[in-house]
Design goal:
Layout lengths: L7 H25 L2 H8 L3 H7 L3 H21 L7 H18 L1 H12 L6 H24 L8 H17 L1 H8 L5 H17 L2
């Protein structure tokens, strides 16, 4: 059975609820957030909100699933037929851009993982794990051909995640240590490009 397309108003309200949910969850966490807070932030009544999402869990899970797809898109874009160093560096660049552009989403995702991923584990063990395995096979092939340095490919991916998402998840700490007059993401992008160029040199 086909789902009836949403009207413009329904699309607008749905987006407003997700945006409000992101704000509220980012400040209060899942346990501290309430539907009343999300409805108020979205400019809707609670019954109206419940027309679009049946529960707080549904809003939270929708946000997490969207973020997971956004997070995985740059890894999907890694081209097995491309030049290996350029492909990996492009992945690093896109990841730091995501950390810059979606800091609330990154922290929301990080908090879910720190709690043991109770709502997202099926996706992590499924789509995420499968994609990482697929791209690690590509990295291993490049390493075997001597086109980039040999190292455990999965841990290479982990290190890229850690070194890019850190700038979103620990933004307050990064900015406090760097002090005024610094652009953390521009500086990080330049540094990480240099770091991975040297690390991956055959």
């Amino acid at each position: 059975m086909k789902t009836k397309p949403m009207t413009r108003i329904q699309e607008r309200n749905s987006r407003a609820i997700l945006e409000a949910g992101l704000d509220v969850f980012s400040v209060h966490g899942f346990r501290g957030a309430t539907l009343d807070q999300i409805a108020e932030a979205a400019g809707l009544s609670k019954p109206n909100l419940l027309y679009y999402f049946p529960s707080k869990d549904a809003i939270y899970l929708s946000l997490l699933e969207q973020q997971l797809q956004t997070w995985l898109d740059p890894l999907r874009a890694m081209d097995p037929k491309g030049e290996p160093l350029a492909e990996v560096l492009a992945y690093v660049k896109r990841k730091i851009e995501l950390a810059r552009d979606f800091p609330r989403e990154s922290r929301l995702f990080a908090n879910e993982i720190l709690q043991g991923a109770p709502r997202l584990m099926p996706e992590i063990e499924g789509a995420l794990k499968s994609l990482v395995e697929e791209k690690c096979a590509v990295l291993s092939a490049w390493m075997a051909e001597g086109r980039i340095a040999k190292m455990p490919p999965t841990h290479l991916v982990f290190s890229i995640w850690a070194l890019t998402q850190h700038y979103a998840d620990f933004d307050v700490q990064v900015r406090a240590v760097l002090g005024p007059g610094h652009d953390p993401f521009a500086e990080a992008g330049s540094f990480l490009d240099q770091l991975f160029r040297k690390l991956l040199a055959p």
